[in-house]
Amino acid sequence: MALIKQDDFIDSVAAAFQYISYYHPKDYIQALAKAYELEESPAAKDAMAQILLNSRMCAMDHRPICQDTGIANLFVDIGMDVQWQANMSVEDMCNEGVRRAYKHPDNVLRPSMVADPLGARKNTGDNTPAAVHMKVVPGNTVSVHVAAKGGGSENKSKFVMLNPNDSLVDWVLKTVPTMGAGWCPPGILGIGVGGTAEMAMKLAKESLMQHIDIQDLIKRGPNDRAEELRIELYEKVNALGIGAQGLGGLTTVLDVKINHMPTHAASLPVAMIPNCAATRHAHFILDGSGPSFIEPPKLEDWPDIAWAPDAQTKHVNLDTITEAETQSWQPGDRLLLTGHMLTGRDAAHKRIADLFAKGEALPDGVDFRNKFIYYVGPVDPVRGEVVGPAGPTTATRMDKYTEMMLDKTGLLGMIGKAERGPTAIEAIKKHKSTYLMAVGGAAYLVSKAIKESKLVAFEDLGMEAIREFYVEDMPVTVAVDSTGESVHQTGPAKWKSKIAGIPIVIE
């Protein structure tokens, strides 16, 4: 009988979440590197290069792959023959491990969990509570899968109750384009089928812990209907042409996973959850011999890709920029930004809207005139950093505030992640503004361009406070120009058409 000690369990959980904050799974890196080699879209290839370089930098420096260090998920299988030496519940031990991981002084992780979700939405400060799923199984070990699930991909989770004879493929192909690019492709689609509504969602989430093996499956051939569907969906989703970061390209998904279980004769519950470019999960087992620490990968596992801006990249001085200059940009233009910008995301926009509604002025020091706003919630700095990883957040969440910001503040433009919706595009077109896109999944790389950071307003909002950044050569792409043309519409449409005439070659 294995004796599992409380401290061993907590230490193992804490170490695992630290581990996945800066190490991609090896299979993800290998799959993304292969996709990078085969990619024909220059914009998508550039985005993949940034993600791969960012991943290698994080592995070397032990800093988070993404500024959104995720909801902590734990899948705990407890052997029936295990004995615990603990005075805390298993769920409480999980939360204590998460707490220690996210507050580790050498690699502080961003706390993103808020309490009172319908009211104050106050940050809990340590990223607890975790989402803990437990099973009691035969055996004398405790098996733990951990995952950190970012909001950008978690928010794209989908569920439907199909009729028994409806087409799963048709629903997926109809639904994936509606997810936009906020889930930061290329990634993995996890699909859960059967059971009940809540079981289908759990099946989908668990499937994302599995090894990327679609190429092996294609080579050996499917053994059952689920494997047939995996191959069909892998090929057909990629044929949509959405591509890396939604810019259009050959690879949108690196794998499609399907978990299934029996269900009611009248039902076909289907859940779909994507894993993003910051795919983060790991597994460890406790057998009573002490804490379990996962062996670090070798740096040779990462491709040695040197990302650099191409000759067509334009250098932009944010401190002297004019409307005429921004209106000369075309969708897909790549820029390197130098100068000052302000930051702000959901909570800051809500507070600004409340001030305007009451007829009050913006706080001292908050002046958006002729400036760009960067939608970001950075990780706290450590070891002399100016700022921690500071990649963009999903821009569509700010769509409802875009008209207000452009009309009332003198804002020149915006920087974020993924596409803008019709409301925001109409406001951008009306005000002849522009929207720039930074690569989601390259947060540490982006942070190296930030040379100064100063808190300006709303300090109580923590990572959502307004800051002023001074950046040098921050890489972005023009996603929506001053006429309202969006690369997230034109890019995928172009590549969907191209792919339709290109045979899909699987090596």
Cross-sheet strand order for the largest sheet: 14-15-16-17-19
The total tally of domains equals: 2
Into which percent range does the helicity of residues fall? 25-40%
Radius of gyration: 23 Å
Mean of residue pLDDT values: 96
In terms of DSSP E residues, the strand content is 15-25%
Spans where pLDDT lies below 50 across 5 or more residues: none
Outline type? globular
Distance between the termini: 47 Å
| Total of helices | 15
Structural class: alpha/beta
| Main sheet characteristics | 5 strands, mixed, barrel
Total beta strands: 19
What does this structure look like?
- The protein is an alpha/beta fold.
- The protein folds into 2 domains: 285 residues, no CATH class; 179 residues, Fe-S hydro-lyase, tartrate dehydratase beta-type, catalytic domain (fumarase, Alpha-Beta Barrel), CATH 3.20.130.
- Helix content is 32%, strand content 24%.
- It has a 5-stranded mixed beta barrel with strand order 14-15-16-17-19. It has a 4-stranded mixed sheet with strand order 6-2-7-12.
- It is globular, with a radius of gyration of 23 Å.
